[in-house]
Amino acid sequence: MSEQSAKPYLIRAICEWCADNNLTPYLAVKVDKQTRVPASYVKNGEIVLNISAGATRRLTIDNDRVQFSARFNGVSQEVSVPTSTVSGIFAKETGYGFAFAVSNDPAASLESATAPREAAKPSSTTAQPDKSRRRSKHLQVVK
């Protein structure tokens, strides 16, 4: 059985913690094709959303998506954000919260994270590399 991501649970927990402490929860999102947000508010492929009870209607944070209705420049719009695109949740007033790693292409980021790295070749003016630091040439799954 595969483990579920802890991300949606952490998002819900920080959101609830903010509400309990009269803080404003902000959600940082890396926008992709499955993210439904007002395009005019996206900057550098990212958007920060106020997800407080006063700013949203029908806020739901489930294991796959964060969804709500909110007003942007006076116009009500539906917002739908996959949890995989959430790069952070934090309290506006204190900055406390969590940051998450977000990849554009999960397969490509997995490949780059697991690909062996080439060792830098020593130049003729540098000393020989320290042999006490040896890199493993094999990856191993640890359960």
Could you give a short description of this structure?
It is built from 2 helices and 7 strands, in the order αβββββββα. The protein is α+β, with helices and mostly antiparallel strands and 143 residues long. It has a domain at 7-102: SH3 type barrels (Roll).
Q: From the coordinates shown, what is the CATH architecture of the domain at 7-102?
A: Roll
Major β-sheet, in short?
Answer: 4 strands, antiparallel
Low-confidence stretches: 106-115, 119-136
Distance separating the two termini = 13 Å
- Tell me the structural class: alpha+beta
Question: What does the model show?
Answer:
The chain has 143 residues and is an alpha+beta fold. The chain has a domain of 96 residues: SspB-like (SH3 type barrels), CATH 2.30.30. The two termini are 13 Å apart.
Characteristics:
single chain; SH3 type barrels; 7 strands
SSE layout:
Layout: H1 7-20, E1 25-30, E2 46-50, E3 56-61, E4 65-72, E5 75-82, E6 86-91, E7 97-99, H2 106-114
Antiparallel strand pairs: 1-2, 1-6, 3-4, 4-5, 6-7
